[in-house]
Q: What sequence folds into this?
C-alpha cells in the first residue's frame, strides 16, 4: 500500500503541476492585431492596402475590368476555348443567361471588399498614431482614402447598390452585417466615394517620392471621374433621368487642376502607354505597379490578364478577350480621316482580312492583333489566325494593349499561363482630357471640348512609327485627321457628342471601361441589342444574347450575399 | 482478485491435506492453437470442487489420482474430461472452442474485456480473413466486412483511404480515431505492416468509444499488434506476388472517330441554325485544317464519306505527325506487386518478444507510380519479480518511398488529350502536345516522364514503453510513454519542356521537409475485484498528448543542369524562395470506468472522461464525456441455460457522449500574417507586398494580411449516441449474429462557413452552430457448419444502413451546402444531397421547342429542363433536390469452405441506392463542354434527326443551352456489387511433416475480379465516379510458412 501511495503522489504531482500550462499553445508564425500598432507596422499596413490593387486574377480581373467592362460592351468577345471556358464570363457577355448565382459576380464583389477592408484596417491603425511618432499620418490617411475610393468606385459601377463600410465602424461580423446595401441611396454612395477622393486631393502631395503612391493629381482625376458618373442621375430602374450641371462643372474644375499642374502630358506615341519601358510616363496619372524577380513565387505580376495571350508556340495560352468585328469596323475612317459614326458597321472588314482597301485609325493596330500584322510591334513575330484559341467560336483576333512581346524582360510564365510585370494604367491623362470634354459638351460648351478631343486625336494620328511590317511598309492603310469644323465636319453639340462617344471608344478600346460608359450615358440597352442583332450573324456564340433594359445595367447582388446578410441586402432592380 | 480466490481455495486444500492422496494439480487450458483460455471452468467431478483459469489459462486444483477433472467453457461445443494420473503436474488440456468467439479478448479502450461481457457496439475484425489481401492498407481490405464501417478507396498504390463509421457524424473531419497499441493517433493504417496486426476492433457506439472522449465522435478503431506467445517459439515467413491490371477503362474516341463526332457537331450547328458566319453555314474544319471532311454538303441529309487528317498537326513546322494515340494505354501498365514478411517470436514466463520485417512494393498500374514500403517491428515484454512488474515496449519503424506524380491529372488527361496528338515529335525526343483549338492540357506521358525522378520519402517511428506493476493483488498501475514521429522529405526537379503550344523553360529544384511528432503519456490504475457473484473492474487514468508540426520548403530556379542528382537548392541562381511554418496542440484528459457483472448474467459499465484541449477558448477547454451501458445475458438464465437451441443471447443498451475537436489549432485567435506574395498558377494572390517605388523587381515592402477571426467562445462539439443491440448464438453457436440499432445526434458542430463579403479577408471564423442526426442499423449473421469431419464451411453476411440529416445550420452556413439558400435548404436533409435541374429528355421537334418554357439556348436536340415552379421560365428557381450520394444500404458476404487441407473463400461487397455524380459525362456525352478535348465513344450515339431515340443530346460545339449545369443528366445509380476477393489455399503442412512446420499454406487469390453495376451508370466504376486512380484487379500467389 505504501508503494501505491508513493506512486499516486508522484503521478498527482506531475499531472497537477503540468495541467495549468499544458494546454497553452502559442500560435506559430503569426502576429496579433496589437503587434500592428507600431508606426513601422502601421506604415506597412498601408503597403498591404496598395498591394490589393494588383491582387486580381484571371477569374476576377479587377485591374482592367476586361471581363466586366469590355466583353459586356460590344467591343470584345470573351474568347478562350468556347463559351464553356469560364462559362460565367459567357453569361456576362450574352446577358440573357446571367443569373443571381453567377459565381464570378460574387467573386469580384468579395475581392473588391477585401481591398476596402485592407484600407479600413490600415486607416484605423493610422488614425491611432500620433503625428509626433508618425509624421506622415495625414498623407497616409489621404492615400488610404484614395485607395478605398478606387475599390468602392469599381463596386459602384458593377453593382450600383453596395454596403458602405468605413473605418468608423468597428470590424465585427455583427457590425458589418448590419449595414445594408440600400442604407444609402445611389447618389449618397457616389458622394461618399467623392468625399474620399476630395480628402485625398486636399492632402496628397503633387509628387510622391515613391512613384507608386497616389498623388494629388491622381486624386483630382479620380474625383473628376466619380463626379462625372454621379452627374448622370439615374432613377430606381437604372434609367438616366438627367445630367447634373453643377457636378459637371466640378468635373471640369478637377480636370483643370490636373491639366494645369503641368505634371502630366500625352505620351508622344500612343504605344508608349502599353509598353513596359514607358511605365510611369507623364501620361500615367495613376497606375498599378507590378513586379517580377521580387522574391515571391511567381512575381507580383499582372495576373488579371494572364489568359489574354495567343496560342502560338512562343506563348501558348489562352486566347481570351477577343476584339469584336464591330470594334474593328469602328476603327475605319472616311475620306476625311474621321470615324464613320453611323455606317462603320455596314460592312465587315474582319472576314476579308483586307486592311489596305479601306482606311483606318492607327489605334486599330495598337489595340487589335490581326492575322498578318506584327504582334506587339515585333516585325519578326507576325500574328497568325492559327494563334487564336477557338476561331470557330470567336474568330481570328486578339487583344494587344494588355500583353507584351515574349522577348520583353517583363514577360513571365507561370504555366499554363503567362503575363508580365508591366504596369496597368488606371487613369491615363487622355482620360482626363476626354472627361473634361464630355462635361463641357454636356454643359453646351462643345467648342471648348474640340481642342481636347483633337489633342487626343492628334497624338493618335502621330502614332504610326511602330506600325510597320518587316519591309517598312505601314501595317494597315492609315488615314486619320482631327476634327476641323467647317472643313471636314460641322461641330454642333450633337455632332460633338457623337465624336466624344466615338473617341472614348477608340482611345480606350479593350481597356475595360466601355460598358460603364454606355450605362453612364443611358444607352446600354439600345446600343447592345443593336450590336447583338448584327454581330449574332457573324459569330455563333452570341445566339440568344439579349440585354434586358432596367436589369442588365448592373450585375445582380449575389444570392449568396443576400443570404449571408439574412435578407438585409436588397436585390438590384429587374433581377 | 481471482488469484485471491484461488489462494483461499489453496488454503482450504492445505487444511484438508491430512485426508490422503489429495494433491494440488496445476495445469493450463488452451484452445486448439495453443492460446490460453481465460475463465474456463475447471471442476473435479467427484468432489464438486471448482475453479476458473486465470488470464494465462492456468489453474490449480486439488484432486486425487483417478478423479476426473472436467474443463468446460461457456459456448464451447464440448467439455473435456481428464482423469488424474500419477505424476500429473503441469498438465495442458486442450479445449475445442470452434463455434464460439465469446472467449475472444476485446480491447475496449485502455483495458480489455471478453466478448461475452461487452455491452457496447464493438466489432471484432477477423484478421485472418484479410491478412493475405495485398492492398497496402489493412483498412482497404476491411471494405464491407464490418457492418457500419464504410470504406472509400481508389486504386492508388500508397493506399490512401477514407473511413467512415456509421455514416458521418459531423460536418467536419469524419476520420475515426485510431488507437495503435493503446496510443491514439489520427493517422491511418497505411504505414502499419498489415502482417503485424493481431486484431482490429471497431468501437461503433458512444458507450464503447466515449472513454476516448474528445476525439471519439467519429468512431474508434483499435489496432493491436502481435506479441510473442508464451512458450511458443516461432518463425513465420509470408510471401506473395501479384499481378494487377485495369479492367474498367473509359471508352474514348480514336482519331478517326473524333473527326466523325466533330463533323456531326458542326453539321448539327449549321442545321439547327446555331453556327454560321455572315449568314453562311460554316464548312466543318477542325484544328485549323488538320481535320477536313469529305461529305455531301446536304444539310437535309448529311452524309460523311471520309474524315481526312493532314499528315502533320502542325503543318507549318511539321514536327508532330498526326497520330492515333491511345493515351490510356500509353500511361497504364499491368504491374507487379510484391510483399514479403518475416516474423520471429518467442515467449516464456520471463517475457516475450516479437520481431518482424516487411517489404511491400506496388508498382502501380499507372506507369512510374508506385509505393515501396519497409517496415520493422520489435515488440517485447519482460516479467520481473515473479510477474509483479512487467515492462516492455512496442516499436515500429516505417519507411516509404513514393514517386510524386500528379496521378489525378494523368488519368483525366489520358481521357481528354486528343488522339491525333503524337506522344513524341518526329525526332522521337520532343513531346507531342496541343495545337491551337485544343485544350491547354499537357501530354500525360510527359507528366509521367518528367516527374518520375521526384520521390517523397516518408519515415515514421511509432513506439511506446510501458511498465505495469501489480501493487496488491488485482490492482495494477500502468504507465505508458509513446512517441509517434512522422516526417517527409521530398526533393523535386522541374524539367524544361515544350509540348505543343505549352512550354516552360524553367529548371527548378525544390526541397521540402516536415515532421509531425506526437508525445503521449498515459497513467492508469486498474483493479479487478470479485466478490461472490459480483465482478468489478475499475479503471482510473490520466493522459496527456502534445502534437507538434513543422515544415520547411524551398525552391530555386536557374539550374544549369536538369538532373535530379544536381537539383539541390544551392545550385539555383535565381528566384530562390523559402517557406516554413509550424503548429501545435495539446490535450489533457482524465478518465475512469467501472465494469460490473453479476453472475455472468447482468452486465453494466459506466465511463466518464474529462478532456481539455488547447484548441478551445480558455473558458471552454474542458468538457465531460459520460457513457453508460447495460447488458443482460439471457442465455445464462436458468430457463435458457440448458436450451439446445439458444446457446447465447445477450441484450445490450448503451448511451454515451463523445466529442470532436478536429479544427485548426489557432481557431480561437485573430491572426495576421505577412504573406509577401503567394500567387500560384491556379490561385489568386492574397499577398501584401507592393512595388511601391516602381522599381519593377527586387525586395518589396510588405504589410500583413488578416487570415482569421478568432472566436474565444469555441467549445467542443458533442455527439450523443444511443445504441441498442442483441447478440445471439443458436444451435451450439452454429448460427451467430448481432443486430444493432443506433441514433446519434451531434450538436455544436464546429463550422467555418463562408461569410459576408464585406468582412474582407480573414473573415473566416469557427463557431459552434450546426447539428446533425444519424440513425441506422447494422446486422451481422454467420453460419458455421460441416459435412462429415472433412468438409467445413462458414458464411458471414452483414447489412447496414444509415440515414443522416442536418438538423440545424446557421443562416450563414446554409450557402455552403447544396440548395438555393432560401426556400430549399439542406436542413432536414443529408449533407450529401444533390441539388440541381431536372432533365425532361430531349426536344424532338421545333414544335416542342416553341411550346415549352423560356429556356435560353433551347433547341431541337437539346436537353429540356423541367419548369418545376411552372412560371414559364427555366431559371435557378427550378432547381430542386435531385439525389443523395448516401447508399440506401451496404452489404457484405464472406464465404469459406474447407476440405482437408484445401480451403476456398470469397468475399462479396456492395452497396445499393446511392446516386453519384458522373463527372465523366462531361467528356463522354458532350462535344460542347470541353470543345478542344477528346470525347467518349458515346458521342457517336448522340441524338440526330435520324436517331431520335438517343438519350444523349445532339452534338454541338457551342453550349448555348448550358448543359453542363448540375442536373439529373449527370446523376446515375451508384449501386454496385463486387467480388472483392476470392482465395484458394492449400495447407501442405502434412505433406512436409518431416520439416515440423506449424503452418504451410500456398494460396492464389484475386481482388476486384468481378464488378456488377447498374446499367444506368455509364462510367467505368461507380465506386470511383470522380477522376481518381483506377481500381485495379489484383491477382496474387502467395505462401505462408511457420516454423
A:
Amino acid at each position: 500500500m505504501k508503494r501505491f501511495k508513493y506512486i499516486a503522489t508522484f503521478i498527482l504531482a506531475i499531472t497537477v503541476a503540468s495541467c495549468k500550462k499544458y494546454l497553452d499553445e502559442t500560435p506559430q508564425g503569426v502576429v496579433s492585431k496589437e503587434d500592428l500598432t507600431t508606426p513601422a507596422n502601421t506604415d506597412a499596413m498601408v503597403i498591404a492596402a496598395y498591394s490589393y490593387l494588383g491582387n486580381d486574377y484571371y477569374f476576377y480581373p479587377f485591374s482592367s475590368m476586361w471581363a466586366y467592362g469590355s466583353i459586356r460592351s460590344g467591343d470584345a468577345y470573351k474568347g478562350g476555348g468556347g463559351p464553356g471556358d469560364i462559362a460565367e464570363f459567357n453569361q456576362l457577355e450574352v446577358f440573357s443567361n446571367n443569373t443571381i448565382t453567377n459565381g464570378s459576380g460574387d467573386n469580384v464583389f468579395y475581392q473588391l471588399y477585401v481591398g476596402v477592408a485592407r484600407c479600413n484596417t490600415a486607416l484605423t491603425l493610422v488614425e491611432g498614431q500620433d503625428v509626433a511618432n508618425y509624421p506622415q499620418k495625414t498623407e497616409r490617411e489621404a492615400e488610404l482614402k484614395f485607395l478605398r475610393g478606387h475599390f468602392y468606385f469599381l463596386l459602384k459601377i458593377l453593382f450600383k447598390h453596395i454596403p458602405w463600410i468605413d473605418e468608423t465602424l468597428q470590424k465585427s461580423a455583427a457590425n458589418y452585417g448590419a449595414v445594408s446595401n440600400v442604407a444609402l441611396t445611389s447618389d449618397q454612395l457616389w458622394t461618399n466615394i467623392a468625399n474620399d477622393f476630395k480628402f485625398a486631393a486636399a492632402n496628397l502631395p503633387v509628387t510622391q517620392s515613391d512613384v507608386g503612391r497616389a498623388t494629388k493629381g491622381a486624386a483630382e482625376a479620380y474625383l473628376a471621374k466619380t463626379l462625372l458618373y454621379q452627374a448622370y442621375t439615374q432613377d430606381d430602374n437604372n434609367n438616366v433621368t438627367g445630367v447634373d450641371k453643377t457636378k459637371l462643372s466640378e468635373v471640369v474644375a478637377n480636370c483643370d487642376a490636373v491639366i494645369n499642374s503641368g505634371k502630366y502630358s500625352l505620351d508622344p506615341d500612343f504605344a508608349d502607354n502599353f509598353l513596359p519601358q514607358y511605365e510611369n510616363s507623364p501620361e500615367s496619372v495613376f497606375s498599378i505597379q507590378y513586379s517580377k524577380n521580387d522574391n515571391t513565387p511567381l512575381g507580383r505580376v499582372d495576373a488579371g490578364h494572364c489568359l489574354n495571350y495567343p496560342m502560338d508556340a512562343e506563348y501558348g495560352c489562352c486566347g481570351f478577350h477577343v476584339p469584336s468585328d464591330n470594334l474593328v469596323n469602328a476603327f475605319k475612317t472616311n475620306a476625311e480621316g474621321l470615324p464613320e459614326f453611323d455606317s462603320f458597321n455596314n460592312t465587315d472588314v474582319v472576314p476579308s482580312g483586307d486592311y489596305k482597301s479601306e482606311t483606318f485609325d492607327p489605334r486599330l493596330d495598337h489595340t487589335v492583333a490581326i492575322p498578318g500584322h506584327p504582334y506587339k510591334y515585333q516585325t519578326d513575330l507576325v500574328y497568325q489566325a492559327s494563334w487564336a484559341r477557338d476561331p470557330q467560336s470567336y474568330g481570328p483576333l486578339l487583344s494587344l494593349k494588355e500583353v507584351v512581346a515574349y522577348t520583353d524582360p517583363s514577360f513571365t510564365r507561370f504555366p499554363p499561363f503567362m503575363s508580365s510585370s508591366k504596369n496597368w494604367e488606371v487613369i491615363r491623362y487622355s482620360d482626363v482630357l476626354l472627361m473634361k470634354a464630355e462635361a463641357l459638351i454636356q454643359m453646351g460648351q462643345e467648342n471648348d471640348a474640340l481642342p481636347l478631343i483633337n489633342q487626343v486625336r492628334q497624338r493618335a494620328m502621330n502614332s504610326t512609327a511602330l506600325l510597320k511590317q518587316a519591309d517598312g511598309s505601314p501595317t494597315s492603310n492609315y488615314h486619320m485627321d482631327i476634327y476641323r469644323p467647317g472643313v471636314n465636319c460641322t461641330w454642333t453639340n450633337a455632332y460633338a457628342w457623337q465624336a466624344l462617344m466615338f473617341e472614348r471608344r477608340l482611345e480606350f478600346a479593350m481597356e475595360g471601361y466601355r460598358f460603364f460608359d454606355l450605362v453612364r450615358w443611358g444607352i446600354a440597352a439600345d446600343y447592345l441589342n443593336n450590336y447583338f442583332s448584327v454581330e449574332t450573324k457573324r459569330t455563333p456564340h452570341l445566339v440568344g444574347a439579349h440585354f434586358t433594359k432596367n436589369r442588365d445595367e448592373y450585375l445582380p447582388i449575389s444570392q449568396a450575399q443576400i443570404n449571408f446578410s439574412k435578407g438585409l441586402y436588397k436585390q438590384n432592380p429587374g433581377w | 482478485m481471482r488469484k485471491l480466490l484461488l489462494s483461499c481455495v489453496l488454503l482450504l486444500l492445505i487444511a484438508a491435506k491430512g485426508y490422503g492422496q489429495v494433491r494440488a494439480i496445476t495445469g493450463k487450458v488452451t484452445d486448439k492453437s495453443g492460446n490460453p483460455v481465460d475463465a474456463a471452468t475447471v471442476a473435479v467431478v467427484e468432489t464438486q470442487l471448482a475453479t476458473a483459469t486465470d488470464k494465462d489459462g492456468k489453474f490449480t486444483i486439488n484432486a486425487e489420482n483417478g478423479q476426473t477433472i472436467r474443463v468446460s467453457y461457456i459456448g464451447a461445443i464440448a467439455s473435456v474430461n481428464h482423469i488424474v494420473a500419477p505424476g500429473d503436474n503441469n498438465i495442458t488440456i486442450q479445449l475445442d472452442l470452434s463455434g464460439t468467439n465469446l472467449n475472444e479478448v476485446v480491447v475496449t479502450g485502455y483495458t480489455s474485456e471478453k466478448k461475452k461481457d461487452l455491452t457496447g457496439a464493438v466489432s471484432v475484425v477477423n484478421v485472418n480473413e484479410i491478412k493475405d489481401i495485398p492492398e497496402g492498407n489493412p483498412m482497404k481490405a476491411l471494405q464491407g466486412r464490418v457492418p457500419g464501417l464504410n470504406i472509400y478507396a481508389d486504386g492508388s498504390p500508397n493506399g490512401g483511404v477514407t473511413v467512415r463509421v456509421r455514416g458521418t457524424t459531423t460536418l467536419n473531419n469524419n476520420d475515426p480515431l485510431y488507437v495503435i497499441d493503446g496510443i491514439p493517433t489520427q493517422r491511418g493504417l497505411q504505414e502499419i505492416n498489415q502482417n503485424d496486426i493481431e486484431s482490429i476492433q471497431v468501437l461503433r457506439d458512444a458507450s464503447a468509444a466515449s472513454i476516448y472522449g474528445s476525439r471519439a465522435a467519429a468512431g474508434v478503431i483499435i489496432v493491436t499488434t502481435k506479441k510473442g506467445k508464451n512458450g511458443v517459439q516461432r518463425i513465420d515467413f509470408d510471401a506473395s506476388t501479384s499481378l494487377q491490371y485495369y479492367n474498367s477503362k473509359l471508352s474514348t474516341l480514336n482519331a478517326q472517330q473524333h473527326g466523325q463526332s466533330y463533323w456531326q457537331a458542326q453539321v448539327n450547328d449549321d442545321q439547327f441554325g446555331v453556327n454560321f458566319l455572315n449568314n453562311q453555314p460554316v464548312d466543318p474544319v477542325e484544328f485549323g485544317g488538320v481535320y477536313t471532311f469529305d461529305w455531301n454538303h446536304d444539310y437535309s441529309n448529311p452524309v460523311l464519306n471520309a474524315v481526312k487528317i493532314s499528315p502533320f498537326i502542325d503543318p507549318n513546322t511539321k514536327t508532330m505527325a498526326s497520330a492515333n494515340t491511345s493515351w490510356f494505354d500509353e500511361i497504364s501498365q499491368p504491374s507487379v506487386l510484391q510483399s514479403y514478411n518475416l516474423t520471429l517470436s518467442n515467449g516464456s514466463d520471463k517475457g516475450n518478444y516479437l520481431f518482424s520485417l516487411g517489404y511491400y512494393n506496388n508498382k502501380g498500374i499507372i506507369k512510374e507510380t508506385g509505393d515501396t514500403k519497409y517496415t520493422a517491428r520489435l515488440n517485447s515484454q519482460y516479467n520481473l519479480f515473479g510477474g509483479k512488474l512487467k515492462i516492455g515496449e512496442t516499436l515500429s519503424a516505417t519507411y516509404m518511398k513514393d514517386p510524386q506524380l500528379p496521378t489525378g491529372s494523368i488519368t483525366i488527361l489520358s481521357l481528354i488529350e486528343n488522339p491525333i496528338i503524337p506522344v513524341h515529335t518526329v525526332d522521337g525526343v520532343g513531346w507531342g502536345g496541343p495545337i491551337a483549338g485544343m485544350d491547354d492540357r499537357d501530354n500525360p506521358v510527359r507528366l509521367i516522364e518528367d516527374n518520375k525522378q521526384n520521390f517523397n520519402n516518408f519515415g515514421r517511428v511509432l513506439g511506446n514503453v510501458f511498465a505495469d506493476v501489480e501493487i496488491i493483488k488485482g490492482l495494477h498501475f500502468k504507465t505508458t510513454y509513446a512517441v509517434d514521429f512522422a516526417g517527409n522529405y521530398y526533393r523535386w526537379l522541374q524539367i524544361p519542356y515544350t509540348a505543343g503550344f505549352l512550354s516552360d523553360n524553367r529548371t527548378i529544384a525544390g526541397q521540402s521537409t516536415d515532421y509531425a511528432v506526437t508525445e503521449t503519456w498515459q497513467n492508469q490504475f486498474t483493479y479487478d475485484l470479485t466478490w461472490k457473484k459480483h465482478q468489478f473492474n475499475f479503471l482510473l487514468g490520466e493522459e496527456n498528448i502534445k502534437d507538434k508540426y513543422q515544415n520547411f520548403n524551398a525552391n530555386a530556379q536557374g539550374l544549369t543542369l536538369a538532373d535530379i542528382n544536381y537539383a539541390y537548392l544551392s545550385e539555383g541562381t535565381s528566384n530562390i524562395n523559402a517557406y516554413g511554418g509550424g503548429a501545435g496542440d495539446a490535450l489533457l484528459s482524465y478518465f475512469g470506468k467501472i465494469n460490473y457483472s453479476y453472475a455472468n448474467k447482468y452486465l453494466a459499465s459506466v465511463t466518464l472522461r474529462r478532456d481539455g484541449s488547447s484548441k478551445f477558448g480558455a473558458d471552454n477547454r474542458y468538457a465531460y464525456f459520460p457513457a453508460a451501458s447495460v447488458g443482460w445475458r439471457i442465455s445464462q438464465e436458468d430457463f435458457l441455460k440448458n436450451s439446445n437451441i439458444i446457446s447465447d443471447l445477450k441484450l445490450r443498451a448503451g448511451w454515451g457522449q463523445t466529442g470532436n475537436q478536429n479544427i485548426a489549432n489557432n481557431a480561437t485567435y485573430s491572426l495576421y500574417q505577412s504573406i509577401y506574395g503567394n500567387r500560384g498558377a491556379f490561385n489568386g494572390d492574397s499577398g501584401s507586398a507592393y512595388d511601391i517605388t516602381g522599381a519593377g523587381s527586387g525586395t518589396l515592402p510588405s504589410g500583413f494580411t488578416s487570415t482569421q477571426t478568432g472566436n474565444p467562445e469555441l467549445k467542443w462539439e458533442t455527439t450523443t449516441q444511443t445504441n441498442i443491440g442483441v447478440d445471439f448464438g443458436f444451435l451450439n453457436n452454429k448460427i451467430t449474429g448481432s443486430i444493432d440499432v443506433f441514433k446519434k445526434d451531434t450538436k455544436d458542430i464546429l463550422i467555418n462557413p463562408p461569410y459576408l463579403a464585406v468582412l474582407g479577408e480573414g473573415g473566416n471564423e469557427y463557431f459552434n452552430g450546426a447539428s446533425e442526426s444519424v440513425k441506422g442499423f447494422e446486422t451481422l449473421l454467420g453460419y458455421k457448419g460441416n459435412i462429415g469431419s472433412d468438409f467445413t464451411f462458414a458464411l458471414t453476411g452483414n447489412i447496414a444502413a444509415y440515414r443522416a440529416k442536418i438538423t440545424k445550420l446557421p443562416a450563414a452556413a446554409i450557402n455552403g451546402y447544396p440548395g438555393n439558400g432560401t426556400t430549399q435548404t439542406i436542413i432536414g436533409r443529408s449533407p450529401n444531397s444533390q441539388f440541381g435541374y431536372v432533365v425532361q429528355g430531349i426536344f424532338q421537334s421545333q414544335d416542342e421547342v416553341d411550346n415549352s418554357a423560356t429556356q435560353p439556348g433551347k433547341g431541337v436536340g437539346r436537353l429540356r429542363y423541367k419548369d418545376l415552379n411552372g412560371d414559364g421560365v427555366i431559371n435557378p428557381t427550378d432547381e430542386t433536390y435531385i439525389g443523395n450520394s448516401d447508399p440506401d444500404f451496404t452489404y457484405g458476404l464472406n464465404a469459406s469452405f474447407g476440405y482437408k487441407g484445401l480451403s476456398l473463400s470469397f468475399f462479396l461487397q456492395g452497396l445499393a441506392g446511392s446516386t453519384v455524380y458522373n463527372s465523366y459525362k462531361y467528356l463522354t456525352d458532350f462535344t460542347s463542354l470541353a470543345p478542344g478535348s477528346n470525347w467518349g465513344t458515346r458521342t457517336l450515339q448522340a441524338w440526330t434527326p435520324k436517331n431520335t431515340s438517343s438519350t444523349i443530346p445532339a452534338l454541338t460545339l457551342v453550349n448555348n443551352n448550358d448543359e453542363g449545369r448540375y442536373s439529373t443528366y449527370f446523376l446515375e445509380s451508384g449501386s454496385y456489387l463486387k467480388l472483392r476477393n476470392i482465395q484458394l489455399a492449400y495447407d501442405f503442412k502434412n505433406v512436409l511433416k518431416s520439416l515440423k512446420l506449424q503452418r504451410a499454406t500456398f494460396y492464389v487469390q484475386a481482388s476486384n475480379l468481378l464488378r456488377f453495376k447498374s446499367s444506368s451508370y455509364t462510367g467505368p466504376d461507380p465506386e470511383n465516379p470522380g477522376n481518381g486512380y483506377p481500381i485495379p484487379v489484383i491477382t496474387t500467389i502467395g505462401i505462408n510458412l511457420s516454423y
User: Anything to note?
Assistant: Chain B touches chain A through 124 residues (CB under 8 Å).
